[in-house]
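Ticket #4471: structure export looks truncated?
Reporter: QA, pipeline team
Priority: medium

Steps to reproduce: submit the single chain below to the structure queue and open the exported record.
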Amino acid sequence: MSRSIIAGLIALGLVGCSAGDAKEAPAGDAAQPVASTPAASSPSAPVASSRSTRTRSSGEDRPQRTGSSNHAVAQGTSISATIDNALSSRTSKPGESFRATVSRDVTDDRGNVAIPAGSAVTLTIVQLEPGSDQVRPEGRLVLDVSSVQVNGTNHAVTAELSPVSHSMKGRGVTTDEAARVGAGAAIGALAGQLIGKNTKGTEIGGAVGAVAGGAVAVKYAYRDIIIAAGTPITFTLTQALIFSAR
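Actual output as written to the record:
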């Protein structure tokens, strides 16, 4: 009977060893998937491409669109206008400003209306002097185009103004000219007294002096430059005019 017990124990020992070997085998097989996990991490390439996609979608690499909301009136564009109020060298002075009105629409480089007809143009008097035979018969007239107003906003303009049509009007004998006539008569009378030494010589000298004084008055008499209201003007841009379109 003891032999049977010993045989049983030996059988149990063999069964336990075979069970232990069976348990160790799955553990060894499970190590293989762990070694293959680095290969599974290869999706890193798509991650990089998705980052570059986000960078492109941010718009940083896109070309910027400039000038789409601006009007650009090209250099060399001629603009026609009419003067609002009359101008005279007798009443107007250098440094003063006056206005004209744009006669017809002015388009930009895309064909859109940039300066509509009716827009206000501001001009400045640079020089305005009456004419006289003694100094300058035709007088002196120099005007400058300062700005144009579009939608209530003034835009500085650099332009060349074509000659402006005007007329010359004599002032007549003013106080200054009358003083010259009187001075001429007095000088003539004094000369007559010295030459003729009598009243008749004084009268003749005075008459001669008056004629001479009258000639001096005419010589120095002013003729004013007159620019009538509604006079057409034309100016040409010497520099492109660019402003915001609203």
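Status: closed, not a bug. The export was complete when the record was re-opened. Leaving a note from the reviewer for reference: The longest strand covers residues 140-150.
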